[in-house]
Amino acid sequence: MGLLDKLGFGKLKEGLAKTREGLVGAVSRILVRGARVDETLLEHLEETLVAADVGAGTSADIMEGVRKRLKETPAHDAPELLPFLKEEIALQLSGKPGGVPANPFDLGTDRPYVIMVVGINGVGKTTTIGKLAHRYMSAGHKVVIAAADTFRAAANEQLEIWAKRAGADIIQQKQGADPAAVAFDAVKAATARSADVVIIDTAGRLHTRVNLMEELKKIRRVVQKQNPLAPHEVLLVIDASTGQNGLQQATKFGSAVGVTGLVLTKLDGTAKGGIVLAIARSMGLPVRFVGVGEKLDDLQPFDAKDFAEALFEA
After folding, report:
1. 249: helix, coil or strand?
2. Cα–Cα distances in angstroms (integers) from residue 252 to residues 94, 183, 216, 236, 262, in the given order
3. Model confidence over 269-299: pLDDT tens digits?
4. Which whole number is the average pLDDT over 160-167?
5. DSSP state of 302
6. Three-class secondary structure assignment of 196-233
7. Contacts for 301 with CB less than 8 Å, ≥ 6 apart
8. Cβ-contact 163, 171 below 8 angstroms
9. Strand ranges for 128-181 from DSSP E
């Protein structure tokens, strides 16, 4: 593990502190040395996962995997189950990449690479876009941000601050302008400027409002007029503290605009980080990034194995 990888793992581990305290603390109380490995213990372990917002279905799948591993490699002491548990959690988190590259920084050859960012109010979309822009800029890519949230007052100003911090260009219009027109202009400008990445901000909208979902669909259609392959990725930003409500959001946005990946924010402020497991299983979507703090570099590319390791590391 290189220095940058170690720094990223350290931040991830730190950001998972509250989730680790809730989930792993409870698991540790079950997997004590000398405890007998039997069906009662396995049932208690499954109940603990459900209580940590991992979800009933996901918890059942994890424990089914643990039971299969036990048949192949019997365990005689409860702590011996921990490696099995970590491996099964990492497996659940892998998701099914819906046509997007496994590495979020692998942009392929089509330019500009268009990323549409969606989600409800208050989940941290604006800060996520700023951090994403910083990440791509740091990787040597030229970035254009489309300020297509023309509904919320001061949205442009906030995004402009983040764009400046990241060193990215920003395309914006006055409040109340057509969001799809802003997205169209941004892709056109990015093409003219030979930019690598376009990140489209969208208004934070209630996932139950049909007309607002239709607006998202319009943005998608208009962007495709510039480039039939765009958007190359649609990221749904979810606040980790929403727990099981995040599943409903993922389902609604997925059916409206074809979400390809997830960004889990505010992971450092919640004990409900287990929701990432439930969403990855339910939607078959890869988690692309996790937010573990407020700084520009506190958005971490997601790695299932690292997440499982950081979750259980003391």
Report:
1. helix
2. 21, 22, 12, 11, 13
3. 545 556 677 777 777 777 888 877 677 777 8
4. 89
5. P
6. CEEEEECCCCCCCCHHHHHHHHHHHHHHHHHCCCCCCE
7. 8, 103, 104, 105, 135, 288, 289
8. no
9. 143-147, 169-171
